[in-house]
Amino acid sequence: MTSDLRNRLLILLVLPLLALALVGVWLDYRSADEAAARHDQRLLRLLPALADSVLAPPIRDSEPPLLLLAPPVEDFLRQHPGYAAYSVRDTSGRLLLGDAWVQPAVPTTQAPEFHSLEYGGVTYRVAVQRGRTGAGELVVALADGSDPRQQWAQQLLLRVLLPNLVLVGAAGLAIHWAVRRAFKPLVDLADAVERRSPRDLSPIDEAASPAEVRPLVHSLNRLFALVNAQAEGQRRFVADAAHQLRTPLAGLQAQVEAWAMMARASVPAPLPLNFDKKHPPAQDGQAPGAIVLGVEQIEKLRHATRRTSQLAHQLLALSRADARSLDAQPSQRVDLKDLCEALLESFLDAATGKGLDLGLDVQSAHVAGHDWLLRELLSNLVDNAIKYTPAGGVVTIRCGVRHAMGLHRVFLQVEDDGPGVPEAERGRVMQRFYRVPGSVGEGTGLGLAIADEIARVHHATLTLGAGAQGRGLVVTVVFPP
């Protein structure tokens, strides 16, 4: 953004500078041309004086004509030493007086002419005229090396181009600095929005923003408010639905559990269940209106209620883990070793009932976070491991501190020797309600999604890998140092 503005401002300023440079070149040339015109007029005035300075023909043929420089010509030559010269030649071009290098073409008429002549690295303006003198018809010439028009081309680089190039470079640096300073609040605003957590939809302070970008900040705050209201409504719906489902599902599950225990303790005959309290079933037979359920049907109902109850619990946990208010809640110092030991006790009966070896390999480790969320995270990981590990398998809960590259990273890990997750599916199992094709068990596809969400709340990283000897699944949560 700022780079584009810098380029646009640079172009918008450089083009006028170039136009001004061209105007400066043109004005400088006009000034040099006017000064040169004055020099030409001076040379024209001096040519008759130089012709009058030739007083008489030579006394002998081998001698030059008699010359007495007129005061104006003498003053001109004295004022421009090294840049002024003259010559007197006959009509054939033979040098009679003056400097030999002042050798213009012999005019065919008596009208004055001007020529440019290069000598000694200097460009001279030469005025030449053919006319009558004291020694007869001769050709007189005056050379002036101080003509500004002749030096204009050499001085163009130093007087016009170089100063303008320096000016353009300085303007570029000034634009870069000015735009960077002027747009720093806007860049800071963009960085602040970029660094925000997806759950942070709090309004931006409009008073701290420049007046030019306050309409943008106001629009962003309005958008944040709309998104926050929509997200809050969704969270309330999930939380309310989960709360409303938990109580009846808990009662239903308790009733079904009681039926299952009764069915297992009774004879293999079908068990009559009467849902009408006014007409309880008879002891010797089936009462009218009774519904007879076999053990197999009760077990299916039991599994269904367990799964529905777990789904409601996980929806509530997901809603709480996704709540924006977590960012504002103070973190606690959580002892992961105590957490792992508590979860081991909670799942020991479930693991024993399935014939699993639930083990513990823990070291002292602490992290800053939310105790109830980390408990939910570990509970989902252990529940998944027990659920998908076949009978006779091993599930291990670990925690500790890793030392790598001078950093101390606390980790939490659950490993099993079950079927594992194919490497191609490890990225997708983090999605909500996704289950690996062909999976067995009562999973809902939310356990890893909830664990990953809780890990993100704690700025931790959750990774999946293969277990020992390539069997099973290892889920590792590494916390920031």
Which short descriptors sum up this protein?
481 residues, alpha+beta, 5-stranded antiparallel sheet, 5-stranded mixed sheet, rod-shaped
Mean pLDDT: 78
Please count the helical segments.
9
- Bulk shape: rod-shaped
Regions with pLDDT < 50 over 5+ consecutive residues?
275-280
- Rounded to an integer in angstroms, the radius of gyration calculated over CA atoms is 51 Å
Order of helices and strands: HEEHEEEEEHHHEEHEHEEHEEHEE
Report the structural category.
alpha+beta
Distance between the termini: 35 Å
Query: What share of the residues lie within helices?
Result: 40-55%
- The strand line-up of the biggest sheet is 4-3-7-6-5
- Per DSSP, what share of the residues sits in E-state strands of 2 or more residues? 15-25%
Main sheet summary: 5 strands, antiparallel
Question: Number of DSSP strands?
Answer: 16
Can you describe what's shown?
- The chain has 481 residues and is an alpha+beta fold.
- It has helices at residues 2-52, 71-79, 148-182, 184-195, 214-265, 295-321, 336-353, 371-388, 447-457, and strands at 54-56, 66-67, 84-89, 95-98, 113-119, 122-133, 136-144, 271-273, 291-293, 332-335, 357-362, 366-369, 394-404, 407-416, 461-466, 473-478.
- The protein contains nine helices and 16 strands.
- It is rod-shaped and about 165 Å long.
- The two termini are 35 Å apart.
